[in-house]
Amino acid sequence: MEVQSDRVMALTEWEERWNQGRTGFHQSHVHRMLKNNIDKILCGRQQIRFFFPLCGKAVDMKWLADMGHIVVGVEYSEKGIKLFFEEQGLQYQEEPVPTIPGAKVFKSSDGKISIYQCDLYKFSSAIEGQFDGIWDRGSLVAINPCDRPKYATLIKSLMKKDCRYLLDTLEYNPELHQGPPFFVPEEAVKSLYGEACDIELLQAEDGFEERHKAWGIDSLLEKVYLLTLKAN
Ligand SMILES: C[S@@+](CC[C@H](N)C(=O)[O-])C[C@H]1O[C@@H](n2cnc3c(N)ncnc32)[C@H](O)[C@@H]1O
To answer: Separation of 61 CA from ligand 1 center, angstroms?
Structure first.
């Protein structure tokens, strides 16, 4: 991780990627780790409220909304947000967010999906309260490594007492690829969340795909953890 610790990606660079269609991170199907572990998040609960940090145009949001859940996402790229609603065939309205200067919220007409267009660090529990579930895919691994403590503090503040937080991470040789996505080893997860949360490794799988060859790496391990707040 040392080798990647100074790498900083500006929000404008993410916008550029969206404008140039360089969104290889996007999956057109529901993420298998979410599908495999959905019961561990729901625990029999229905119509729960999910938070998607750095949501992009993840189809997982529609999948959960179709199951009756409420989804709130945060994404900086307006283009990404509009593509989400258009590609999913969802009508939406756009409104300013008075408490976050410059931000907008895009809401599906049925009210089940709201995506805030702003820098994640401007979002807080004052905007949408706390959540029952969090799906963190392409998020902790995408933020600048120097922002991880700030990110973890925000995410913990968005967790209801019984929130179940599913976290997807990637492990590979960081000497070979500068990121994003960044290398997030188990020790980093523990150091960011271990004091406040119980952490259970649910699944670890070979995540190497053809497209990863272009990163110069030859192996990639994808791990998914379930985080719950410790009782105190
Ligand atoms: C790797 S992509 C993952 C998107 C989505 N989670 C997925 O799995 O397809 C990271 C996304 O975060 C957005 N992003 C990066 N930094 C952000 C920030 N500070 N605030 C809001 N969005 C951000 C980028 O525009 C990009 O769409």
So the answer is: 14
**pTM score above 0.85:** yes
Per-residue pLDDT of 36-56, as tens digits, reads 999 999 999 999 999 999 999
Pocket lining: 74 vs ligand 1, CB cutoff 6 Å: yes
Could you tell me if 170 and 161 are in contact, meaning their C-beta atoms sit under 8 angstroms apart?
Answer: no
Cα of 232 from ligand 1 centre, angstroms: 33
Nearest ligand 1 atom to alpha carbon 77: 25
84-120 in b/e burial notation, b at 16+ Cβ within 10 A?
A: bbeebebebeeeebeebeebebbbbeeebbbbbbbeb
Could you give the C-alpha distances from 168 to 21, 37, 75, 105, 135, in angstroms and in order? 23, 11, 18, 26, 8
Domains, the chain, ranges and CATH? 2-229 (3.40.50.150)
Please state the φ and ψ torsions of residue 122, each to the nearest 5 degrees. Answer: -90, -10
Cβ of 142 below 6 Å from ligand 1: yes
Ligand 1 atom 26 nearest Cα: 56
